[in-house]
Amino acid sequence: MPVQCSSCTEKRAVLKRPKTGHSLCKECFFWAFEEEVHRTIMAGELFKPGEIVAIAASGGKDSTVLAHVMKLLNQRHNYGLELMLLSVDEGITGYRDDSLETVQRNQQQYELPLKIVSYKELYGWTMDAIVKQIGLKNNCTFCGVFRRQALDRGAMLLKVNRICTGHNADDIAETVLMNVLRGDIARLCRCTAISTASEGEGVVPRCKPLKYAYEKEIVLYAYFKKLDYFSTECIYSPNAYRGHARTFLKDLESIRPSAIIDVIHSGENLSVRDSVKMPVQGSCSRCGYISSQMLCKACMLLEGLNRGLPKLGIGKPHRLHEKILSKQPLTEEEERKLKPAVF
Ligand code: SF4
Ligand code: ZN
């Protein structure tokens, strides 16, 4: 017998909500999903009327749903925001070039302005060239650090007040787990924040309107709305460490669906002893971006790439950093340590 929608009790249910277990028809699911995002935005006071907001758009399901829902809620609830799309071209042939075509179609569909910034123009390197030099280890470290700064630089060019990203509940729970596993207390404290103020010159405030949206529901929403998104994985993935955290979380979720929200909740309520040392934020002596070291991570990684010593910016700040920055020659043994292993 067909199941009735438990919300309107009129139409036939087409899905069981992963978050609540309710059987809903399409329209009631859309409404529930959208209004939950609206409540998240209101409760977190994520935007102010009149702000210009860049939606970080990759063409993937999360950012496509974010762009769709932001446009819709902005109209439905009169947020008074000026929205635009901001994309990063990492220079990954066969992946990003295709997904950027999706973003370009989204731009037409949602009638939003689009700005694309590329690693090639910002750093002089594409991810293809980086992987050629370093191999398939640590490539996501380069990519993640460069993307963060690229979004800020793009946002500065567009003169936006805020960037919103498509991070969903699963992403945040994974990050909490990863930071616990790495013992990275500073990141653990920051990673559950729904919005961050500008941390310094050149850093644009960010927020995550999909923070409490389950990935499974984002997929269902995109599917039933027939949104145009790109679903192929990056050819240089997986980021092995995140992949393990993801699998672990998915296993937990299959036994206990609330595991995702529970992990986020634990992260949000952690308090750190005063005696724990936190990095002191200053600014990079080369590019001015926030950094707790003399050079920011992006400049350090770039320095390593340009010198053919790509391990330079990987891991904890290296004791050779100062020597390199003050242009003292390295011994053969020191050079060898910073070269890529044979892949
Ligand atoms: Fe970049 Fe890694 Fe993501 Fe590919 S999987 S886009 S290399 S961070
Ligand atoms: Zn820098």
Automatic annotation (TrEMBL):
Question: What is the species listed in this Swiss-Prot or TrEMBL entry?
Answer: Gouania willdenowi (Blunt-snouted clingfish)
The family annotation for this protein states: Belongs to the TtcA family. CTU1/NCS6/ATPBD3 subfamily.
Arranged from A to Z, the UniProt key words for this protein are: ATP-binding, Cytoplasm, Nucleotide-binding, RNA-binding, Transferase, tRNA processing, tRNA-binding
Return the InterPro entries for the record: CTU1-like_ATP-bd, CTU1_C, Ncs6/Tuc1/Ctu1, Rossmann-like_a/b/a_fold, TilS/TtcA_N, tRNA_thiolation_TtcA_Ctu1, UPF0021_CS
Residue ranges occupied by any Cytoplasmic tRNA 2-thiolation protein 1 C-terminal domain in the UniProt entry: 282-312
**Alphabetized PANTHER family for the sequence:** ATPASES OF THE PP SUPERFAMILY-RELATED, CYTOPLASMIC TRNA 2-THIOLATION PROTEIN 1
This molecule's function is given as: Plays a central role in 2-thiolation of mcm(5)S(2)U at tRNA wobble positions of tRNA(Lys), tRNA(Glu) and tRNA(Gln). Directly binds tRNAs and probably acts by catalyzing adenylation of tRNAs, an intermediate required for 2-thiolation. It is unclear whether it acts as a sulfurtransferase that transfers sulfur from thiocarboxylated URM1 onto the uridine of tRNAs at wobble position.
| Taxon lineage | Eukaryota, Metazoa, Chordata, Craniata, Vertebrata
Q: Supply the name of the protein.
A: Cytoplasmic tRNA 2-thiolation protein 1
